[in-house]
């Protein structure tokens, strides 16, 4: 099974990092295809914890080549900070490859992110403040800076100058400090020599790899419900975490993809603003947050917590063409008498079975719950489906039915080994 996409099926932080790390131990490449250091992917190997932001999951596996694809936005300072951190912990990062076409997050796009949030006031998105949105906006408006520009100083200067001619007008309006072309260019150029050996035509490398029978894992950042096209717009990120993004974000065609794996928590969380029908604002939400350690890896913000939302996962299954679900954090639900599962919504007095097409309806949706029996046993040592208590098995089978996608892998702990495999995802 050479090419599989791993992506988020809810609102992010589902445990994609653990999944890509695990598959990365057997893959030839793990490729990040969207987003940037807004992602926070936690991986626990032999009890040691790693928080990856910009670097792909495969970085921890010595036989895997980690790749930052053209769809990613790269903050060069963060890149070398993460590389330095892993190097100091004895992880070899020298295999990392970066697309020449990836766009660069600059000091001014970071500032624009912060200013835009302030200007939005109580309508703010709740971004991670990493400059993601403004960098993608520049990409789409054809004024972005790409990794390959680092190696052509005159062109880089001309591009920065042209971009700042517009940004500085806006910055002045905001009453913010102006950016000088020389300072921005000098900052970017300070990374050029260190980046140069990593930069290749990643599209050619990956397609050649597939022709040679190599295994590639495409690692999505963020999630389906945060997708710029398919998510809860405008409360979304500015890229395509959905399956199509893996193709545009790497230059590997859809006919080459064998499997699309949606990672979903056994409940659900969200960080930042925006609609969230099953959100728990009472002590159940606090209980989930504490049991599941639901605090952001990137910003440290407490995550909003709620019960499993089946229409959301069905929606993800549809827009991504999911072949499998990797269900995570089943262990967190232990100790509940019964577990609510949202199976439909009530919108303006009517039952609605699927995620509504209109944002206003989704914002008004209240969950309709079915209640499943809980279990009290600690399941963190279970390694086969049959090891799980009957109620936990039944919960998984129920989620499989209401999500309309098979659940192939079940997470019962943060460690690489704390996993039940029902179907091999690389088979
Ligand atoms: P990502 O952004 O999708 O990679 O997810 P995050 O790393 O932001 O958040 C997932 C959190 O859950 C991390 O702290 C993981 O170590 C942890 N985790 C992943 N899978 C499991 C699981 O099955 N059980 C438990 N208890 N924790 C898990
Ligand atoms: P991983 O990959 C959860 C959210 C932010 C905000 C919105 C836009 O760890 O699952 P941005 O900075 O991207 O412009 O913010 O998207 N967001 C995430 N939420 N997990 C993430 O990444 C996220 N990356 C961005 O909280 O609501
Ligand atoms: Mg995360």
Task: Supply database-style keywords.
2 domains; binds 6-O-phosphoryl inosine monophosphate; Adenylosuccinate Synthetase, Chain A, domain 3; globular; binds magnesium ion; 427 residues; ten-stranded mixed beta sheet; three-stranded antiparallel beta sheet; 13 helices; alpha/beta; binds guanosine-5'-diphosphate; Adenylosuccinate Synthetase, subunit A, domain 2
Offer a quick outline of the entry.
This protein has 427 residues and is α/β, with parallel strands linked by helices.
Question: What's the arrangement of secondary structure elements?
Answer:
Layout: E1 3-8, H1 16-24, E2 29-32, E3 41-45, E4 48-52, E5 65-68, E6 73-74, H2 76-88, E7 97-99, E8 103-104, H3 107-120, H4 132-140, H5 153-174, H6 181-189, H7 192-195, E9 199-200, H8 202-211, E10 216-219, H9 243-248, E11 259-265, E12 268-270, H10 283-291, E13 304-306, H11 310-320, E14 324-328, E15 338-347, E16 350-352, H12 359-364, E17 366-373, H13 390-403, E18 407-411, E19 419-421
Parallel strand pairs: 1-10, 1-11, 2-5, 2-10, 5-7, 6-8, 7-9, 11-14, 14-18
Antiparallel strand pairs: 3-4, 12-13, 15-16, 15-17, 18-19
Helix pairs in contact: 3-4, 3-5, 5-6
The protein binds guanosine-5'-diphosphate (GDP), 6-O-phosphoryl inosine monophosphate (IMO) and magnesium ion (MG).
Walk me through what this model shows.
- The structure is a single chain.
- The chain is α/β, with parallel strands linked by helices.
- It has two domains: 3-90 and 202-421, Adenylosuccinate Synthetase, subunit A, domain 3 (Adenylosuccinate Synthetase, Chain A, domain 3, Alpha-Beta Complex); 103-196, Orthogonal Bundle (Adenylosuccinate Synthetase, subunit A, domain 2), CATH 1.10.300.10.
- Helices cover 32% and strands 20% of the residues.
- The chain is built from 13 helices and 19 strands.
- It has helices at 16-24, 76-88, 107-120, 132-140, 153-174, 181-189, 192-195, 202-211, 243-248, 283-291, 310-320, 359-364, 390-403; strands at residues 3-8, 29-32, 41-45, 48-52, 65-68, 73-74, 97-99, 103-104, 199-200, 216-219, 259-265, 268-270, 304-306, 324-328, 338-347, 350-352, 366-373, 407-411, 419-421.
- The strands form five sheets. Strands 9-7-5-2-10-1-11-14-18-19 form a ten-stranded mixed sheet, sandwiched between helices. The protein has a three-stranded antiparallel sheet with strand order 16-15-17. Strands 3-4 form a two-stranded antiparallel sheet.
- Helix 3 crosses helix 4 (132-140).
- The N and C termini lie close together (5 Å).
- The mean pLDDT is 97.
- The structure holds guanosine-5'-diphosphate (GDP), 6-O-phosphoryl inosine monophosphate and magnesium ion.
- Magnesium ion (MG) is lined by residues 12-13, 39-41, 297.
